[in-house]
Amino acid sequence: MALGGYANRIAHVDLTNGTVEYRGIPEDWARKYIGARGLGVRYVFENGPQVDPLSPDNLLCFMNGPLTGTEANMSGRMAIVTKSPLTGTVTDSHHGGWSAARLRWAGFDGVLVKGKAKGPVYLYVQDGTVEIRDASEVWGKGVHDTVRFFRERYGEKDLSVIAIGQAGENLVRFACWINEDDRASGRGGTGCVGGSKLLKAIVIKAPKKMPKAADLEAWKPAHKNALAAIMHEQNITSPRKGGLSVYGTNVLMNITSTMGALPSKNSMLTSFGPGAEKISGEYVKEHILVDDPTCHACPVACKKEVEIKEGPWKGLRMESLEYEPAWSLGANCGNDDVNAVAKLIDLCNDYGVDAIETGHPISIYMEATERGYTNGDGGIAWGDTMAMVELVRKIAFREGIGNVMAEGADATAKHFGHPELAMTVKGQGIPAYDPRGLKGMGIGYATSNRGACHLRAYTPAAELGVMPFGSLKVDPLAWKGKGELVKIFQDVHAFSDSLDLCKFSAFAEGVQEYAAQYAAMVGVEFTADDVLKAGERIYNLERYYNNLAGFREGSDYLPARFIQEPSTMPGSQGHVCELDEMLAEYYAARGWENGVVPESKLRELGIID
Amino acid sequence: MQVNFYATLRPIVGSRTVQFDVDENITVQQLVDAVVTRFPRLRQELLNDNGDLYPHVHVFVNGRDAPYLPDGVETLIQPGDTIDIFPAVAGG
Ligand code: SF4
Questions:
Q1: Does ligand 1 come within 6 angstroms of the Cβ of A247?
Q2: A415/A444 same-domain check
């Protein structure tokens, strides 16, 4: 391959036959789809959109981008790409930490897994090779014990373990992969696909060996400028000064609640009132914060490690009390006990279920209880933390009502006879922004190619006025212009997810910085316009995949609650989400026909010849 | 009048809520002036060189960011209004 920067080595693992082959990346694919998310989607597309997600034929990709594991800031991200058993769409879910960098240092751009093993296995990755090894000793264990087992076996030094827990083994549809105990590739049920293949873990042993840029002269200023942007940004990313660095992602809890944009009690409300403060980043810092961990090559250090100081879970330490899961298992379930929130997130990580998704079937059960819909299924009160702990276990082991909930929010709401209680898009639960108070999120959720998602188009950056150096600020309650805005965000993020840089880089860096780093690393000419074009191509390929998988006209929707039930809380009172208006704007900007990519667009972007 | 502070502003003012001894019927801008007079370190966090609120700073009146109210920062604060001041915050 003429492009520099890449390892140009992908391991193709066939678990049915027990074989591993090593191949380069088709150069045309690397140029068009960059890496990580984009390239992973290209491989999944090649595997066919009709595949049953839980059949051996589904492809599970662990993908790096051309900047992964390099000196580039925030470049410790890995994308896990597959067809989702939760949504039926293509999905990609990213995690931080060090496993992505170590996969690159071991000599790989990616590991593609197909087939189904005869018994439980893990992949051992070291020095340019991938071996399939017996995992029967760890099958049945939670993520924490699995990580501990491999650390004891292979030594902690230079080791990363990405594992599924019991939820993945039991085919919970929103089971996930957890890296190094706390970093989740949470969304879309990628861990369920791992479980269906009897794949328990990826164990990577690799000392630091940073790849060099193809154009070293160009790399130096490109890297320096990107670093300066992060360090000097002042408000968000600036180390130990910006809100993200000081308080972590949970710095958002108070503001979204204040402005009527925090979906609470299964989105019946748009604010959690005084409860928000009690589970907020500010509260955590004042009461239970013990450390500020980071990821590979990141000066921001937004991870916040906490230790519970009292009560039944005293002594528990964990580092993923993030805004999204704290919302899902907190405000969304009427739970304002921060210790319980920490415990519940840690349980989700140990069982290996998406902590954002897990709050959905639970809050549905709570609302169904309040409305008297549960019939013979007992009930659970808002904020009953002990019952929540037990429910998470039941979901992971598919016990009793947990067996229904393990199928996802839509199945749970249907079970109670009220599908309207599911706050989902394409089967995936919404994250922590109410589209009645942050309208860009509404069109973002509806048109996300992986089901409801905040990370495809992080419009709060503009709606809260935190674009790099105040370059754009829009009214969160206005809908006009949001369709076009979402398209741009989706394209930019599709590119950064393919590099693969942490999404939070976008609070300081822009398309210029992305283009300069990519160009220098792989040794090509690349402009800001090229960034947007590549992002658009990736987004359209995903949409084309979904169209072929059966998502046609009318597939971009929101739960009726956001469109028909006006907010009753300050900040957004009286507002609904004007989805239809934004959709029209969005489709016009995309050049799509009611959610379907026309052939002319596919040709224009070079997706088909 | 009670004002709530968040995130990196909180360590500067020393608590979540601060009571300000100001006249009734003041505007948002006048309240912000009173805030930076009492806590001079907040000036550089909230205001640009022209003395205007930074676009990333939020002064909410009952949950609505003041610049989006019909009278913007000239809005008269009413008795019982809830005032919340945030620096730039983001994550997700
Ligand atoms: S900003 Fe946070 S999540 Fe992103 S790379 Fe840095 S520490 Fe990791």
A1: no
A2: no
